[in-house]
Design a protein that fits this description.
By secondary structure, this protein is an alpha+beta fold. It is built from four helices and nine strands; from the N terminus they run ααββαββββββαβ.
Length: about 190
């Protein structure tokens, strides 16, 4: 069908008619090869991307989970009780850089614990985070040394950097309002199981 559309309109016995059709067939074959080559390259690139994504998942695995607990005073019972969260541990550069970005929801009993290699000021930003957070920074003894309550999501490229007031080796991201709800303040300790 394609040959009929591009074939030379000269009579079929004419010598230039046969040569024209032959040249056009060769050109069509070359263009088809190029087109298939481009498609093969695109499929290969997509395949390599998915392979690296899969290998990254296999070798980095799911985030380790721990239980983080705080003592909280309950005025209803006039006693102190433990309030615990299940926290995902972000202990590599890549995991810390990703944090809670792109997550749709964070349950009230969940959080993310960032473990740093150095005791220094560690900054955060809320880029591509879909919900407000409380960010708590801790020293080596797991005492709160700095807090940022109700940090707001940032869905643009111009996000505010949130910096701890003092050096820390851990940070915990939880849903906004958690720190006030259980009465967290500077100096309160977190236990990790």
């Amino acid at each position: 069908m394609v040959l009929q559309r591009i074939a030379n309109p000269r009579p079929s016995g004419h010598p230039s008619s046969i040569l024209g059709v032959g040249v056009r067939i060769i050109i069509m074959k070359e263009n088809t090869k190029r087109g298939l080559g481009v498609i093969a390259c695109i499929v290969l690139i997509i395949g390599i991307f998915y392979l690296f994504s899969f290998l990254n998942y296999v070798f980095s695995g799911p985030l380790e989970k721990k239980t983080a607990c705080f003592e909280s005073f309950n005025p209803a019972t006039n006693s102190t009780e433990n309030v615990c969260l299940t926290v995902e541990v972000a202990d590599t550069e890549r995991r810390r850089a990703t944090g809670l970005m792109f997550r749709k929801v964070l349950n009230d009993s969940e959080g993310m614990l960032f473990v740093f290699q150095e005791n220094r000021n560690h900054n955060f930003w809320m880029k591509n985070t879909n919900f407000p957070l409380d960010i708590l920074w801790f020293d080596e003894e797991m005492q709160i040394v700095s807090m940022e309550k109700n940090a707001q999501p940032c869905l643009t490229n111009n996000c505010t950097v949130i910096l701890s007031e003092v050096n820390s080796v851990y940070a915990l991201e939880v849903n906004a309002g958690f720190a006030d709800r259980i009465g967290l303040e500077i100096g309160k300790k977190m236990s990790l199981k």
